[in-house]
Amino acid sequence: MVLYRKYRPQKFADIVGQEHVVRTLSNALATLKFGHAYLFAGPKGSGKTTMARILAKALNCTGRKLSKDLPAGRQGSYEPCNKCSSCKEISAGKSLDLIEIDAASNRGIDEIRDLREKIRFAPTSSQYKIYIIDEVHMLTKEAFNALLKTLEEPPKHAIFIMATTEPQKVLPTILSRVQRFDFHRASLEEISKLLERVSKQEAIKIDEDALHLLGQLSFGSYRDALSLLEQVSSLRQTTASKITLLQVQEVLGIAQEKSIFEFIRFLLESDRRKALELISKLYYQGVDLENFTQKLIEILRKMALYKIGEDQLFDLTKEQQVEVKELAEKSQIDGFMNLITKFINILPQIKSANLPPLPIEMAVFEITAADREMQNVCGPNLPAIAGMQIQNDNVKLQNEIKPVISEIPKPASKKQFSSDLWPQIVKEARTRNHSLAALLRDAAIADQKENTITLAFKFKFHADTMAGKKYIHVIEELIAKITGTQYKIVCIVNPALVIQKPLDPDEELLNGAKEVFEVEE
User: Fold this and answer.
1) For residues 243 and 278, is the Cβ–Cβ distance under 8 A?
2) Residues 159, 70 within the same domain
3) 333 and 233 within one domain
4) Would you give the distance in Å from CA 80 to the centre of its chain?
5) Does residue 347 lie within any of the structural domains?
6) Residue 482: is it exposed, middle or buried by C-beta count within 10 angstroms (0-12/13-18/19+)?
7) What's the CA gap between 184 and 47, in Å, rounded?
8) pLDDT digits (tens, 9 = 90+) for 81-118
9) d(C-alpha 366, C-alpha 356), whole Å
10) Are 233 and 243 in contact (CB under 8 A)?
């Protein structure tokens, strides 16, 4: 028998991590004040169906003592005895009075109508006929309406227990007729204790760090944690051998945390070559890049939270905590948020791509391309994630702007400024200062009224830098040189701005990759 079924709780006392649900249901059972319809909502693997079966056993158990059979003032028991015929039949999945319905595959109105017809018949051997409807949110609207009729006036012998991972999709009219319980995702500590207990009982020798990793990979699911433990247990050559962290990482195709921290470091340092080499290495080692990206997002999230004073490092090792704190100092909060957004967006693409590394490589190109242009302005030794706000007084410009006022000859004739002159202005700026030209390449003419020109930038840092005294006068004088008219420049930020630029070799490669990826999609 698989581990998650072998160690499935058989009574309320065995339930881990859902004390609030256990407490309420046990009190209801002890006082015989339970409802006719329940909704268990929560993430997968949190114990919803298990709790439903234990509740069903307790309701029909003939071995537990009821309040009505005890002296006044004494409450009855709530735990199923697991010894009576009803408990044994439910545990074995053979009870005729417990009907389990998978709404994902039985979601139509015909199935619910059939339920309504059969629910009128009395239980065969138990006190209650209990219906467990799993993934109830998958029912069609018509099926929900048919179920609603039954919930409004159910037979006295019928009890409904519905489970869902998406309660927001359940009709409000259904929600108003049930007792709702929200299940919590298991904590890493709870998962770890479960894995330790099961591994001891199964005589599975495994490193503590390896168990910790299995707990992390289960993402709060008891079922997934036990399934992973069972998978890695086959690594033992003998019953006496011990499973190591490295073996677990290899068999599950999991990137070591070291690789994730290295990748983040390469991005923060805008080291495109090393970042791409690492992704290629992981791919050919058989690492699951979807899982790698998920863990990458989680680590970036911890760095972002750490930057704002929220310590979410409790589930990391001491070495990992040091890494997070060190890397968090290399960028601003906006930089980490932009990286998180970038990798969240490509996560679905990794799963569907014929070549999984491609979406990550595209992201690396885009991130480092933006960083390199910012470094042209900030200086080569300053890592700059696109979009992060850097205070101007922290930025040391390496190239001083040469005075040009006295060098600008008066034009032969005046002409009105227009967007057609913009390439000429950028070209002229390039001959004087490359940093200024890089800024202008990221700008677009947003508006022109009388003698005022409004330039839009995608990033606040670019707009602030252009608006500084060293740049704003130079660009105004360059325009005056070309047009013969003095214009005032105003800089604004437009996050949705898209700039069409001449392509350098790296950008050509990136766009070629995009075309390939679009075909695959």
Assistant:
1) no
2) yes
3) no
4) 38
5) yes
6) middle
7) 9
8) 999 999 999 999 899 999 999 988 887 888 888 888 88
9) 17
10) yes
